[in-house]
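Page 37, continued from 36.
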């Protein structure tokens, strides 16, 4: 067992030497698709851990906190959801030419709702905490990102789309979370 652990740690050294940690955060606009909802301001922050596979390809797993939601105009309430998000992105970086530093990323994410609430706008100050009995705590989806790195600063925009329905109310048109985000990261 010691030999296997030693070999594993020895093989992990090159990955750690060529890895980068990015602290990031930003704002966005989120909504629920297949739902009579409009966009709502969102924000996110966290860390991404990148390690190179070769000069152009790398992988970026991460850990983010995100606040998302939607505004439901017909029923006059705001939906607010807080998630812990784990994306795993495959990254292609252009390494020469005029657009050197431009990266394209895509990959799945899984998110766990740690809290949620509905805030009534009809004149009363009713705020209901979501119990997640008819709503799903787990969100699974895909994420696409375009970023541009200038030295240690990374400027990015990404779009994430939930593939799993937020609620279990309607089998034929379950609402899915969608979020367009902009942000800045600092790479160590």
């Amino acid at each position: 067992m010691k030999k296997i652990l030693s070999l594993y740690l020895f093989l992990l050294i090159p990955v750690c030497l060529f890895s980068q940690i990015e602290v990031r955060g930003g704002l966005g606009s989120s909504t629920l698709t297949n739902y009579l909802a409009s966009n709502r301001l969102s924000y996110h922050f966290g860390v991404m851990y990148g390690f190179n596979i070769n000069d152009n390809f790398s992988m970026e797993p991460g850990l983010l906190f995100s606040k998302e939601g939607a505004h439901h105009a017909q029923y006059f309430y705001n939906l607010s959801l807080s998630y812990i998000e784990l994306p795993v992105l495959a990254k292609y970086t252009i390494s020469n030419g005029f657009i050197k530093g431009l990266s394209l990323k895509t990959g799945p994410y899984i998110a766990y709702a740690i809290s949620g609430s509905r805030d009534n706008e009809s004149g009363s100050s009713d705020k209901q905490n979501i119990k997640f009995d008819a709503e799903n705590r787990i969100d699974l989806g895909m994420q696409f990102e375009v970023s541009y790195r200038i030295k240690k600063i990374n400027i990015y925009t990404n779009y994430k789309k939930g593939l799993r329905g937020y609620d279990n109310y309607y089998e034929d048109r379950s609402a899915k979370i969608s979020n367009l985000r902009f942000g800045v990261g600092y790479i160590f």
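The beta strands are 19-33, 40-52, 57-72, 77-93, 102-120, 127-129, 138-150, 153-162, 176-187. Flag for discussion at group meeting. Residues 21-155+169-178 form a domain with the Porin fold (CATH 2.40.160).
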